[in-house]
Amino acid sequence: MRIAVVATGEMGGGIAARFKARGAEVFTNLAGRSEASRARAIGAGIAVIDDDAALIARAEIFLSVVPPARARSLAERFAPALARVGGRILYADCNAIAPETARAIAKTVTATGAAFADGGVIGGPPKGDDAGPRLYVSGEGAARLAVLTQFGLDVRPMEGGIGAASALKLSYAALTKGLTALGVAAGQGAASAGVAASLRAELAASQPQLLAWLARSVPRMYPKSYRFVGEMEEIARFLGDAGAAQMFLGAAGAYEEVAAAWDEAGAESPLLRGLGAMFGTEGARERTA
Predict the structure, then answer these.
(1) CA distance 67 to 44
(2) CA distance linking residue 90 with residue 34, whole number of Å
(3) CA nearest to 278, candidates 191, 217, 180
(4) What long-range pairs does 124-133 form, CB within 8 A, spacing at least 24?
């Protein structure tokens, strides 16, 4: 099996490394990516082909694993190369995007003759021999992705056509990353009012499970917060006219503030020091591309 994975960030790189370790031929294109991404790919034995047409010519399956804001432009970028292979390849969008966005990407891809599958990844990147994340897939091309279970990825086809897997992913992310954004808002407010220690003590007494969850999720989010901005915007698009859509646009703004603070001074920035007083700093690490 010949699989192209673009790009090899934390999730894409972990999935690509799992495929390679389980016997697949794996390729990526690192044009414009960081040295950290290149080192991650080469270290996992992934072949680097920095030419779109050559990459597509080698692959049977193409997995798009990029920040949500880049999902549509990636499909448009690879469309000419997809058209050259005459419909031989399956393009799977595995990003946290609204069903509407997934259908627009499907239109771009299928116009080239390629098959398309809508995907949503739930869970963390594969590590060692763990179970790894679940890849929910829908649409006509979904059944062809079942072969990836042979290479260590838990693929779960679902009914509903293109957009169903994306809807599931965003519904899940609205709960998890939405709750993390609420933790940021509460921590920011408590820190600015000088009551962070009191709020932490109350949570420890009355909501210990919630405090433990936020103490894990908030600091670990800092290096990834820039990716969550687009994901919150996609959730707002998914919710449409519902009043809650505005809440997720607010969450996007909160993550944007965290991303700017992380880029400027890391965990020592005033905003993140305030959050650290509430939730600690364990799990915060340098941002990787």
Answers:
(1) 21
(2) 27
(3) 191
(4) 125/10, 125/11, 125/13, 125/14, 125/15, 126/14, 126/15, 126/17, 126/18, 126/152, 126/153, 127/14, 132/14, 132/15, 132/18, 133/11, 133/15
Report the C-alpha gap between 231 and 121 in whole angstroms.
13
CA 181/CA 226 separation, integer angstroms: 13
Determine the pLDDT at residue 288: 38
CATH of 2-162, one of 3.40.50.720, 3.90.228.20, 3.40.50.300, 2.60.120.260: 3.40.50.720
Distance CA 217, CA 230 (A): 18
Beta bridge partners of residue 136, listed in sequence order: 120, 156
* Domains of the chain, residue spans: 2-162, 170-279
Would you say 37 and 13 are in contact if contact means Cβ atoms under 8 Å apart? yes
User: Can you list the residues of the chain whose pLDDT is less than 70?
Assistant: 283, 285-289
Spatial separation of the C-alpha atoms in residues 88 and 110, rounded to whole Å:
11
pLDDT value of position 285: 64
Token pair in block for residue 29: 């294109």
